[in-house]
């Protein structure tokens, strides 16, 4: 008699530490809630592009600590001698090169285990059709919010309405059903230029999302009730049914890594009064030009408020600004206004390069957060109950900003110069920091975030919305 094959969920993140960590967290979540009960195992397919000792160490640690999570490493493939292309086109192409390897891996796995689902991160679309042909159900893990998913599902419809590239439509707003309008120049970078090969890949991504067996979204019902309702109404995929959607957030990535000692900024926060400090951080890639760094310093100094600010080195290559992980040591004094650090030493702290953001946000001294509006940062603020000033820089952050400010009333906006840099003046920094920390609006937001914090924990309660959604998803997988 043939023995019953092991039920397995295969997760396939795109290259890069952040994507791998998020998928591992999803795997852990499935195991914690249902792994033993339903005897499910998790297998991650990971590419070797951009592999680093940090990635290898991480994979080894997870494999040792979680026996039910294993990894299948794809062979490295060479891109060859192409003319230079955009960063995003390269990402899609690198993943495409591994498509036959993924297919082969799935075929081999099917000999020994039962693949209940393949969960792709949204850049890994090249594995979609092959997996479907093998009879494997295909799901996507959408790491950002429901409103953004709605906009992505609607992009194929919007794209049909324009012949010019979005980057040239400087005065045009794109209109989505029941969502705030978006300036055409604020679409995610791969969509800006119709001649960039990443444009077609991104459009395919949006179309594939609508064809999936399901999309897993890192949000929760109580946070995005309106967007979730509109998605249920099916207005974003006009000619077909909206795929089943599972809201299983907040899922927070364990970004801290190994920490030898408590970060010095946390000891500094211990000495500050409750809710008195504004925290400023611009994500993993938020590297601001020197001129902008100086303006922030001036604004913070004039605001008179306590602050904790993570400063990255300014971009080395002006054309790649904000796009690359730019964590290289640098001389802080050289980019700040002269004498700034001495003048603010009794109420401000500047951390170079990287700070333990999740721990900082949870510290009782933090009263507000100036953020680039990356979705992980927003969820971390929700879980910590800290209100926001939204200052978008790249990727889908302008959409997040619009949704946070105009749709959910969760953030104070900053006024940005209407150019690619989105420059913000020192006066504006001062004004918005004061508004966040001192005004009636700031107070209202603080109260709102306290309620959101409670509902975030509620979502993972015994019969909370995210617990129920995850249970439904895993049952669907088990039924096959
Ligand atoms: N982060 C951190 N310290 C820093 C900067 C960022 O721990 O100094 C973490 C932050 O907590 C979050 C992630 O990096 O988990 C950034 O993710 P997000 O989605 O907000 O933005 P992205 O970097 O993807 O643009």
Q: How many DSSP helices?
A: 18
Rg (CA only) = 22 Å
pLDDT averaged residue by residue: 92
Assess the beta-strand content as a share of residues.
15-25%
**SS elements, strand count:** 15
Oligomer: single chain
Query: Low-confidence spans: pLDDT under 50, at least 5 residues?
Result: none
Termini separation comes to: 22 Å
Structural class: alpha/beta
Short description:
The protein has 480 residues and is of the alpha/beta class. It has helices at 17-38, 53-65, 87-97, 99-112, 128-133, 146-159, 197-211, 225-233, 264-270, 290-303, 332-335, 340-343, 357-362, 375-384, 397-407, 426-438, 440-459, 465-479, and strands spanning 6-12, 40-46, 69-73, 113-121, 138-142, 173-174, 182-183, 214-217, 245-247, 277-281, 306-311, 348-352, 366-371, 388-390, 411-413.
Task: Please provide a written account of the structure.
By secondary structure, the chain is α/β, with parallel strands linked by helices. The protein is built from 18 helices and 15 strands. It has a 7-stranded parallel β-sheet, sandwiched between helices. Strands 12-11-10-13-14-15 form a 6-stranded parallel β-sheet, sandwiched between helices. A two-stranded antiparallel ribbon has the order 6-7. Helix 6 (146-159) packs across helix 7 (197-211) and helix 10 (290-303) crosses helix 16 (426-438). The protein is globular. Bound molecules: uridine-5'-diphosphate (UDP). Uridine-5'-diphosphate is lined by residues 18, 253, 255, 281, 283-285, 310, 354-358, 374-377, 380, 395.
């Amino acid at each position: 008699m043939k023995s019953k094959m092991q039920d397995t969920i295969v997760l396939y993140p795109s290259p890069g530490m952040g994507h791998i960590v998020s998928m591992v967290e999803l795997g852990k979540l499935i195991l914690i809630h249902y792994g033993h009960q339903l005897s499910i195992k998790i297998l991650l397919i990971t590419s070797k592009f951009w592999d680093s000792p940090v990635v290898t160490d991480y994979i080894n640690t997870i494999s040792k600590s979680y026996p039910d999570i294993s990894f299948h490493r794809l062979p490295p493939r060479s891109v060859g001698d192409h003319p230079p292309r955009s960063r995003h086109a390269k990402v899609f192409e690198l993943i495409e090169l591994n498509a036959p390897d993924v297919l082969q891996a799935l075929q081999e796995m099917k000999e020994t285990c039962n693949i209940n689902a393949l969960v792709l991160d949204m850049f890994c679309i090249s594995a979609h059709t092959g997996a479907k042909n093998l009879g494997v159900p295909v799901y996507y893990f959408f790491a950002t919010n429901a409103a953004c998913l709605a906009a992505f599902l609607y992009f194929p419809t919007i794209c049909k309405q324009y012949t010019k590239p979005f980057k040239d439509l400087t005065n045009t707003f794109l209109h989505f059903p029941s969502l705030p309008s978006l300036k055409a120049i604020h679409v995610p970078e791969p969509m800006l230029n119709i001649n960039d090969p990443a444009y077609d890949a991104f459009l395919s991504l949006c179309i594939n999302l609508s064809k999936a067996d399901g999309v897993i979204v890192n949000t929760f019902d109580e946070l995005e009730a309106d967007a979730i309702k509109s998605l249920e109404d099916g207005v974003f995929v006009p000619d077909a049914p909206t795929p089943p959607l599972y809201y299983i957030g907040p899922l927070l990535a364990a970004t801290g890594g190994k920490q030898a000692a408590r970060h010095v900024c946390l000891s500094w926060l211990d000495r500050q009064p409750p809710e008195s400090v504004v925290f400023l951080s611009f994500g993993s890639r938020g590297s601001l030009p020197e001129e902008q760094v100086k303006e922030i310093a001036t604004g913070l100094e004039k605001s008179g408020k306590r602050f904790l600010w993570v400063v990255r080195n300014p971009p080395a290559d002006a054309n790649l600004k904000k796009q690359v992980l730019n964590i290289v040591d640098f001389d802080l004094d050289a980019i700040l206004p002269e004498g700034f650090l001495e003048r603010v030493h009794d109420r401000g702290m500047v951390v170079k390069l990287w700070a333990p953001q999740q721990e900082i946000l949870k510290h009782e001294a933090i009263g507000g957060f100036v953020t680039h509006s990356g979705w992980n940062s927003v969820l971390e603020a929700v879980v910590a109950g800290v209100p926001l000033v939204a200052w978008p820089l790249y990727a889908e952050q302008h959409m997040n900003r619009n949704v946070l400010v105009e749709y959910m009333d969760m953030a104070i906006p900053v006024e940005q110069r209407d150019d690619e840099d989105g420059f913000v003046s020192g006066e504006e920094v001062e004004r918005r920091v004061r508004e966040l920390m001192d005004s009636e609006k700031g107070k209202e937001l603080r109260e709102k975030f306290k309620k959101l914090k409670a509902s975030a924990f509620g979502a993972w309660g015994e019969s909370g919305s995210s617990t129920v959604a995850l249970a439904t998803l895993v049952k669907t997988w088990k039924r096959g």
